[in-house]
Amino acid sequence: MFSSSSKFQKQPKGKMWKRWQLFHASDFQSLMYPCFIFCSILGIFPYKINASSFETSRLRYILLTFHFCVFCSYDLIILHKIITKTIDYGDETKTLEATSYYIFGGFVVIITYILSGPRMRVLQAMLKISSRLPPESYQKLSKWIHLKDILGTFFLVMQGYIYYSRGPEYLVYYVLAAYIGLLMFHMDMQYVNCACVLKACFKRINDNLMHLQNVVVNNEPYAPNLICDTQKNQFLLIELKTLKKQHLIVSNTMQMLNVIFSLQLLVTIALTFTDITFDVYRHFGSAKPERIKHLRSAPLFMTYLTAPAMSKSKKR
């Protein structure tokens, strides 16, 4: 009796450890675990994760509000210094690029704070829908999603550290620019991860439809316990209605996901396009032949942490 009870108590603990194992997801929560951890560190995940639901955490929401207020204060201070020429980036192109970076970054933080409630509803819907997926689907997705989130974060942190090592006296500017880049990256990855899960849901519905089609075409015995063909057809109709309902739910969730993350994605696209435009103009507008040759061989990296926002500036 004692050994049986002891075995029963130890089993959930081992199950929970396996549930959160890296690159071995078994459900939606374990699949999104690295992304949720990084968002919690950044203070943009004001939710508690229970067994089958997301709930707003009062303490984490206060932390989100605190981060929002501190960020907006420093963002306005830096923009004021850029406009009043207290911070000198050397030329007007870099100044305009840095200004756009901090303006767009402020928009992203404001959008993240305002839409924290709707995002929780999306995650709740995702948690409910994805419960129909088999563990094999999560296993395949986890290798890509976990690796992408971890390597992307590592790259952004290292990029920020490289810029900081060039001018440690401008720590506040580097930290603010790095925070904007990490926040944008993880909000975008949260959208991408949810879209990948919804794609897997659509694929599973399509596979079930193909299976039903094969049953009808080949006249296979879909349900052995049903004798009459009429009962068999009724059973197939019920299955089709169930799949239709599931498809409608997944489609509505996808639409809700697009609506809630649309502003975030638009700002990311606008910021990336602005950075690339300024970089191309600055490098090729007054480029020397040897510099153009060097740029052709240089790799194109991510533009979340751009040089103008973190470039070495001069205080007056």
UniProtKB/TrEMBL annotation:
Its job: Gustatory receptor which mediates acceptance or avoidance behavior, depending on its substrates.
Any one annotated GO CC term: plasma membrane
Transmembrane segments: 31-49, 61-83, 103-123, 170-187, 256-274
InterPro entries in UniProt: 7TM_chemorcpt
Membrane association type: Multi-pass membrane protein
Biological process, per Gene Ontology: sensory perception of taste; signal transduction
Predominant place of localization: membrane
Localization (cell): Cell membrane
Keyword annotations of the record: Cell membrane, Membrane, Receptor, Transducer, Transmembrane, Transmembrane helix
Family listed: Belongs to the insect chemoreceptor superfamily. Gustatory receptor (GR) family.
Annotated protein name in UniProt: Gustatory receptor
